[in-house]
Design goal:
Strands 2-3-6-7 form a 4-stranded antiparallel β-sheet, with no helix packed on it. The model is unreliable at 1-31 and 429-441 (pLDDT under 50). It has 10 helices and 8 strands. The protein starts with 19 loop residues before the first helix and ends with a helix. It is of the alpha+beta class.
Amino acid sequence: MVLIRMRWLLPCIPLFCASGATLAQAGSSMTDALTLHAAIARSAAANPELKAFEYVLSAQDGRTLQAGLKPNPELVLDLEDALGTGERRGFSGALTTIALRQQFERGAADSRVAAARAGRGTLDAELHEKRLEVSVETARRFALVLANQARLQLMQEAINLAKQALAAVQVRVQAAKAPEAELARAAAQLARAELDYEDTEHELLTAKHQLASLWGASQLDFDSAAGGMTYLAKLAPFTQYSARIKANPSVQKFSSEFALREAELRLAEQRRKPAWELTAGVRRFEHGSDFAGVIGISIPLTWNDHGQGQRATAQASLEKVDADRQASEVQLVAHLFALYQELGHALHVLKKLDADVLPRMRDALKQTEYAYARGRYGYLELLGAQRELLEIRVAKIQAEADALRYAIEIDRVIGAVPGTPEAITQIRLAQATRQTNEMQK
């Protein structure tokens, strides 16, 4: 068989097309085969962005602590009727007052703490959302590593086919049954296949480093990604997926945001009750050396309500949360429906290619090879049959890649971590035998 250049046709071969030998080696000869579950666990435990977010939470805890602190008392020292004239010359007629002044916030501290705690709630919801995004991104990059491993295996197979084709052409040229040009073309195909293999090696190494970066590793701490993709033979009804929209962290976050806006509204209403100040102390009369107690209270007069705008803003922000939630759910349902349709189409394409197109193309290639070996067909006919079969296989590979991508995105929308029992995306080693059989056909 003659190799045609494949790199432009295989930019994103998914993990489905990896041969069983490759996947089996991932669990045996490779010393550190990484599973999807292990990759997600590493990212969840050591992702740099998640670690950095811990400081955001600590900062908010500090704000909560600060919000609960009450004002300290103030020491007040007043000196009156001193440094004047006549009887008030010097300090002989002075009045000296020493007092403590305490501010009473009348519930403001509780309102501030409630708002700060509600702010922590929104951050917790955001952390949950970030963890899901990290898990989904880990699944994407894990699949890319598997895809590049499969591509590398396929490139090695292409090199072997190119060598076989070169040997077959040499026999025909030596027997004067084929022109010298065919020999040069076969040698060129072998050289191009070797270059494609080197390119794929580089892409695989890059994909591994990108995956490892999700848990902060500057050097690779695994040899390969292990697993195969189990795509759905049949999708469940759409309503079963749309009913899980509320599990999406971006939707759940609205509950925390609503609590925050409520707390902010209560804090704005609290400002209607300004703080009072109580002063108590002792006064000394220098003339006569007498003492007397002093007590006073300061109550702001709220003739003009200066918090109307803040309360109106807080009320509008509170009402906006519910509107935003409804809009978000509508958009997520629409996005989920689009993903559901695309996944269904990809599965339909896979079924059609497997059951109808590929068997016919394999038969056509066998017949063409038989005729070529007996001189009934020329080199171009053989090359055309090989190209057509390869294009169909690439179409199947692309449909599998699309199915994987749509499944991961559906998991994100319904709030499921890829690879878990409740997720659509399932990656395991069980598909190795099926993939081996397909690659050998």
